[in-house]
Structures are given as structure tokens and as C-alpha cells.
Predict the 3D structure of the following.
Amino acid sequence: MFRRQVAALGAAFILALGARGASAQTAVIVHRTSPIANVQLDELRRFFLGKTTITGNGQQITLVELSPIREKFYKSLLGLTADEVRRRWVAMVFKGDATALPYELSDAASVRRYVAEHPGAVAFIPVGDVDDTVKVVRIDGKLPSDAAYPIK
């Protein structure tokens, strides 16, 4: 009986650690040469809702989603589920208000590589997967390491 309780406590502890790792901070990234360095939270929302499709210098924005963290990102940024966001995009494409859905990639390395190769790309990945091939965007002047960073 005692062994079962210890095993159950150990399993709960491992699950808790895994859950904590799963909530790692998310960074919004762009191409290293992108003029986007800092965006207001509302502007970032407009990007991911398809309401703003061109940067200030006229660069077409291409959105890239990291599918394993898409749900958490959209809930934090937009207060919507990933399915709700996708339905909005499908409707925009159907009506001709958008030409394509955001690209969906399954691993951070692929997202990072895509962003590094496409100057208009805007994406999100865990902070731990950022390297010098991409640039992290400040949101309201805050970096992911700042306590007041708006995306949790």
C-alpha cells in the first residue's frame, strides 16, 4: 500500500514538472532583417486575425503557426481557441479577404527555418527555441523575459 502511494506521488510530481515545462514562455519572431522590432499588443492581434497584412514598410506578412503551442498562443493573445481562429481565417479566404491560411508547422526548428528564409514571416515559438537566425519582437516594449510580457 505504501509503495503505491509513493509511486502515485512520484507520478504526480513528474506530471507537474512536465506541465510546468509545457508552459514555457512564447516568443513572437520575425526575419532578422524585418523592420518589425516592437509592436503594440493590438497590432499583433490584428496580424493574427488577418486584419493587418502588410508591415509599415509595405512588406506582405506571412503568418506561421507552431501547431503544438497554437492553442495556448491564441488563447493568450486573442482569447480565442485555435479552432475559432482557423474558422475566421477560412471565412476570410472564402470571402476573398485573405489569400491563404497561416502556415502550420509541427516543430519549432521548421518554424524558425521558415522565418529565417522568408522576410515577411511572423511566427511564434518557445523562447528556448530562438536562435540568432531570427529576431524576437518586443510587444509593448517588453521581451518574453520581462514579467509584464503580455503573452503567457
About this structure: The two ends are 40 Å apart (CA to CA). Helices lie at 2-22, 41-48, 70-78, 82-95, 108-117. The longest helix spans residues 2-22. The beta strands are 26-31, 38-39, 62-66, 103-105, 121-126, 134-136, 138-139.
